[in-house]
Amino acid sequence: MDNKEVIIKQIIVITDGQSNVGGNPVEVARKAFKKNIIVNTIGIMNQNQQEEKPLEEIVNIAEAGGGIYEYTYIDELHQTMQSITYKTVNKTIQEAVNKQLKEIIHQDINDMNPAARSKILHYIDTFSEEVALQTCIVMDASGSMAPKILSARHSILDLMESLELRRGNCEIAVVIYPGEGGDYCQLISGFGETVEDFERKIAIIKAKGTTPTAPAIDYAIQLIEGYNRIGLQKEPVELEGAMG
C-alpha cells in the first residue's frame, strides 16, 4: 500500500440525543458510506443516565455508515474522539490489507500463523500514523447540550492539537447543528484552517433549538466532497442542505 494514495475520510457525529427534524440520519449515513466516507458516532451520556435507549440511534447511524460508535461522558469526550479515530484508521487499513492478502495468498490476517500475523499488525500500526486523514466533526448544539457545550469545545480543540502530532497529513472541519437563523447546520471551521483559527471561532457555538442530525451529516458529506484531495479545495460551491 502506498500511503500517498490513501486518504481516510470520516465524519464523527457527537450527540446527546435523538434527531427530531430534517429526515432520517441513518439513510444519510448509508449514503456517506457508499461515497467511501465513514460515519462514526459518539453518544454523550449524563452521569446519572441509566437508560441507553435514547442514544440507540447512534448505533444505527454508525452501522449504516460503516463506522464505530461509543458512549461517553462529556468529561471523557476528547479521549473518546481520539480512540474512535485510531480505531477507524486501523480498521480501514486492516480491511484493505485483508483484501490484498486474500487476493494474493487466499488468507486473511486471522488465518496466518502468530509470527506472520504479528508482523502484519505491526505494519498496520506503523502505517496508520502515516496515512492522510480527513475528519469532519458534526456536533449536536441543540438545547439539551447547553450544560456540555463548553467541555465539547475544549475537547475538539484537544483533538485538533493531538492530531497535529501525527506523521500523516490531517485536515479537520467542524459543523454544528442547528445553525443560526433557522439553518439546520452551520460551518464553524473548514478544512485547512489552523487550531488558532478555530479557537477564535468556538465562542459562537451556543446550544439551542432542535436536533437536525440528517441535514448536518449531509452537509458534512458535501464539505468533504468539496475537496479534490487533502489540502486542495475545489472552486467554491454553495453547499446545499444547510437551510431549515
Automatic annotation (TrEMBL):
This is Ca-activated chloride channel family protein. Gene3D superfamilies: von Willebrand factor, type A domain. Residues 1-84 form the VWFA domain. SUPFAM superfamilies: vWA-like. It comes from Natronincola ferrireducens.
